[in-house]
């Protein structure tokens, strides 16, 4: 193992993160994505620890992967039993993989106080386990658990565990900062000393408890580590693992590595995919891949950016499949607003100073009420169309009513909606899973007979944000709805103290925008 | 300036973060908190850039602070005008502060391509601005914008900007990684070279675009920087600023600095406070201060933790006002569940193996449906009470109905609730801001006449999380409600595809738990 490899543990260490729980199906989906991205090793789970992981290894056996190797994870054998009787080891061999990661204790304190065996007995566990796995035709990665704490406590013994593992046949020795307590200078010094007394290939497995896991992993690479372990988005127990979505971009652009196996330009979509499957909120401010990572707000910056993007961007967003965004916000000057409107496709050549000012005032006012157009450009576009263009909505809204009725464990919701479409009054009723779904169904039912093209429009995301949670159930809420047709997606917004009113606004905008798009591309049949 | 100082720019650079917008009132609240925490310098804003910042400086003038100094921020004077006519500089002087931060260009490329002036003309801007401010009795902090990129491009010129600023009278020269592109090794090497040719006090201002801002700030400290700039929670434009909520804990516990001005044990509450005012979701996995930072999930770890907390914690949570948590989750074994129930105050001495297993199965099943008891311990406690203890709710729920009626821009909601309390049927109606608030009001109205102690119970937070957003408005939602009485707060949960049903479950649990607490502490008057 000479060239640099990436080892992803999203499915094992990542699954230890608070609020994270993958189904077997989720895990298989993630494996396919990681393989497609080009990760070298994918740690699939600990077959001996729970039935779900066992099921995963059974399910993955028939999957044809392009590049990735699936790895099974386990501890060294249990003390005091024959290794053939060790269920963890047996399940690992039975799992059908050909590469395994074995973690063993490198911290003397853990050996004597947690395992409660002698230091030599622990060395024997490491040696016996690795040799046995090699006899069973496995390739072995050795994770030296708590290596850095161990080295600080007893450097001779910590090094001894590495030597034993290497001599037993492990192909890479992974230095683990299990508690995540290492700071860069200390970590670099320890790795330097290890390199002085060992020529074996080293890996790094860092946790982020000190907020420096990315820096530590990059330093380990500089000091010669040939395997970097981490998770996508840094998910994992406590403060998470080293984040491959920050490490890989740095290696690609700042260390200028070719990384020819990796589709670096897919790392943004990989990040969003993993966050969605893990049911975690993606971090807007995530380096390289976050939606705000190349987003500019201050008027001054935007001006300079338009002159030359290098002035305020350390790397180009395109490399990672991300993009630059300019925000319309209360901090923005005329140049931001102009840039945004042009981006939305409006011709501003006849726009007067007064019109700019009145639009900016209106947006400022709505932002004060809780609107945020940063993520809801379809609503911003409609706002502009309604005020400044020769535009009329294809339907008018008169009134609605919702009745939600609870029977024990279930609540039914029914929506009654009155619209005006093409001069006709439409009075319609529909049921749904909850009040908003009932409104959605009623609007759809009402509009479909007039505009059959509405059929291809789908609501794909619905988000609720409580704006001032401390007011309890009387708080203001912001609703964002993302919709799509066969060609594109768009997001709309509503704000109110009443969640139904906020959802209604976003729904109306969403349907109105769908019809606007259909009209503009000619697919609005004249039914 | 010899000893280390902390400089917070949450109110200026932090406010550039996407989705962040502080009112003047917010800013004053934050100043008070930062002062109480013991931050040395608080950058309040840029008085010349917008009326809100100007208003802030007017409002802050009469505020008595214990320790913090308020700083006004601005650029060097504009080229080609007399400094007395420069509005930015004038407003800065008029702002009433005695310390100012002036940023000037250190990157030759910015001078020639953005300012479009000669390199010498830029040096003159720096010199003239600082001298003029000193004549007006200001202390000046000089922010060398893009210093590291400037040093890479033209080291002689970048150093020259520092020298000019220092000779003009700046008391500290802050090296800014404005684009956040620096990696630790490169940054350390540059600072080393600056130290060789300059004896002036240095500061560090790092951005997190490479995910290493904390590491970079700590390295700068190691290399002699005497001022660290950053924001609480790392909020700020793009990927944010260096995070003082990670830097300060490291300096306190790992560099063993006394930091006697700082109330380090308040940093967790400071973090949550800033996130709340900024209307950002706190990061559970934030190092040191996040709710998951010392949270343990895996059965194995919990076992070892109970033996000795040092085994799996790099530092003690108490130092930062944070605490250890053990999660009940599907990954957990019997030891986790037992620990949690004991923590909740249950006596488990008579609990059988079968009872453990059946409870674990029930929790696993509910988690599969979308429940998460990690954050909703009152609901977990009620679940346990209902199943295993001699416990009966003080009221029974029969039925409810909600009518939401829209009139143009407004939607009214009305809830009709049927309860059974002390043998009596109670049929009551109430209005509210939205359907959930109406239910809350109806429940309160119904229970108050039977249990006057319910009067002190308040709903303090209401959160909605869409579990599978991609199903649009038919998605499942999880509702968390936090409530408090005069002594404590508690959180309850509800899950359903119908947001009203989910909110109802959480509301019922919240009222039931309030009555349970009142009964146990004897405050439940026998009305």
Automatic annotation (TrEMBL), chains A, B:
<keyword id="KW-0412">Isoleucine biosynthesis</keyword>
<dbReference type="GO" id="GO:0009097">
    <property type="term" value="P:isoleucine biosynthetic process"/>
</dbReference>
<feature type="domain" description="Pyruvate carboxyltransferase">
    <location>
        <begin position="4"/>
        <end position="268"/>
    </location>
</feature>
<dbReference type="InterPro" id="IPR002034">
    <property type="entry name" value="AIPM/Hcit_synth_CS"/>
</dbReference>
<dbReference type="InterPro" id="IPR013709">
    <property type="entry name" value="2-isopropylmalate_synth_dimer"/>
</dbReference>
<dbReference type="GO" id="GO:0003852">
    <property type="term" value="F:2-isopropylmalate synthase activity"/>
</dbReference>
<keyword id="KW-0100">Branched-chain amino acid biosynthesis</keyword>
<keyword id="KW-0028">Amino-acid biosynthesis</keyword>
<dbReference type="Pfam" id="PF08502">
    <property type="entry name" value="LeuA_dimer"/>
</dbReference>
<dbReference type="GO" id="GO:0009098">
    <property type="term" value="P:L-leucine biosynthetic process"/>
</dbReference>
<dbReference type="InterPro" id="IPR000891">
    <property type="entry name" value="PYR_CT"/>
</dbReference>
<comment type="pathway">
    <text>Amino-acid biosynthesis; L-isoleucine biosynthesis; 2-oxobutanoate from pyruvate: step 1/3.</text>
</comment>
<dbReference type="InterPro" id="IPR005675">
    <property type="entry name" value="Citramal_synthase"/>
</dbReference>
<dbReference type="InterPro" id="IPR054691">
    <property type="entry name" value="LeuA/HCS_post-cat"/>
</dbReference>
<dbReference type="InterPro" id="IPR013785">
    <property type="entry name" value="Aldolase_TIM"/>
</dbReference>
<dbReference type="GO" id="GO:0043714">
    <property type="term" value="F:(R)-citramalate synthase activity"/>
</dbReference>
<dbReference type="Pfam" id="PF00682">
    <property type="entry name" value="HMGL-like"/>
</dbReference>
<protein>
    <recommendedName>
        <fullName>Citramalate synthase</fullName>
        <ecNumber>2.3.3.21</ecNumber>
    </recommendedName>
</protein>
<keyword id="KW-0808">Transferase</keyword>
<comment type="similarity">
    <text>Belongs to the alpha-IPM synthase/homocitrate synthase family.</text>
</comment>
<dbReference type="InterPro" id="IPR036230">
    <property type="entry name" value="LeuA_allosteric_dom_sf"/>
</dbReference>
<dbReference type="Pfam" id="PF22617">
    <property type="entry name" value="HCS_D2"/>
</dbReference>
């Amino acid at each position: 193992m000479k060239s640099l490899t990436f080892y992803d543990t999203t499915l094992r260490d990542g699954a230890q993160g608070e609020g994270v729980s993958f189904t077997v199906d989720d895990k298989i989906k993630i494996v396919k994505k990681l393989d497609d991205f080009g990760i070298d090793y994918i740690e699939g789970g600990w077959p001996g620890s729970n039935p779900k992981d066992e099921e995963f290894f059974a399910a993955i056996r028939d999957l044809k992967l392009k590049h990735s190797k699936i790895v099974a994870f386990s501890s060294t054998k249990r003390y005091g039993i024959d290794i053939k009787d060790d269920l963890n080891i047996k399940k690992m061999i039975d799992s059908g993989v050909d590469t395994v990661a074995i973690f063993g204790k490198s911290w003397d304190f853990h050996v004597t106080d947690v395992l409660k065996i002698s230091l030599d007995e622990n060395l024997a566990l490491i040696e016996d386990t690795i040799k046995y796995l090699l006899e069973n035709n496995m390739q072995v990665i050795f994770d030296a658990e708590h290596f850095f704490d161990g080295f600080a406590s007893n450097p001779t013994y910590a090094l001894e565990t590495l030597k034993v593992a290497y001599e037993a046949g492990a192909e890479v020795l992974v230095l683990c900062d299990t508690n995540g307590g290492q700071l860069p200078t200390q970590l670099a010094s320890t790795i330097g000393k290890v390199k002085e007394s060992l020529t074996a290939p080293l890996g790094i497995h860092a946790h982020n408890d000190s907020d420096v896991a990315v820096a530590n992993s990059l330093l380990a690479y500089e000091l010669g580590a040939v395997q970097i372990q981490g998770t996508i988005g840094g998910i994992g127990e406590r403060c998470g693992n080293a984040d491959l979505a920050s490490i890989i971009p740095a290696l690609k652009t700042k260390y200028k590595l070719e990384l020819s196996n990796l589709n670096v330009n897919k790392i943004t979509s990989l990040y969003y995919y993993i966050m969605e499957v893990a049911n975690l909120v993606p971090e807007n401010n995530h380096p390289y891949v976050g939606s705000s990572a190349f987003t500019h707000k201050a008027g001054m910056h935007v001006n300079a950016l338009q002159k030359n993007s290098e002035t305020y961007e350390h790397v180009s967003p395109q490399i990672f499949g991300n993009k630059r965004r300019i925000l319309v916000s209360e901090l923005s000057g005329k140049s931001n607003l102009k840039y945004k409107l042009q981006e939305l496709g409006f011709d501003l050549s006849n726009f007067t100073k007064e019109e700019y000012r009145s639009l900016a005032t209106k947006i400022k006012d709505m932002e004060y009420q809780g609107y945020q157009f940063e993520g809801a450009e379809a609503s911003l576009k409609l706002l502009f169309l309604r005020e400044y263009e020769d535009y009329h909505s294809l339907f008018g809204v008169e009134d609605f009513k919702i009745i939600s009725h609870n029977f024990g464990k279930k609540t039914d919701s029914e929506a009654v909606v009155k619209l005006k479409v093409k001069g006709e009054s439409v009075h319609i009723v529909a049921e749904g899973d909850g009040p908003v779904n009932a409104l959605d169904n009623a609007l759809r039912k009402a509009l479909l007979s007039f505009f059959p093209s509405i059929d291809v429009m789908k609501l794909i995301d619905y988000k609720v944000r409580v704006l001032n949670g401390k007011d309890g159930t009387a708080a203001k809420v912001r609703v964002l709805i993302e919709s799509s047709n066969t060609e594109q997606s768009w997001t709309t917004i509503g704000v109110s103290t009443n969640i139904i009113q906020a959802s209604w606004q976003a729904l109306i905008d969403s349907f109105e925008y769908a019809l606007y798009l259909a009209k503009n591309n000619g697919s609005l049949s004249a039914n």
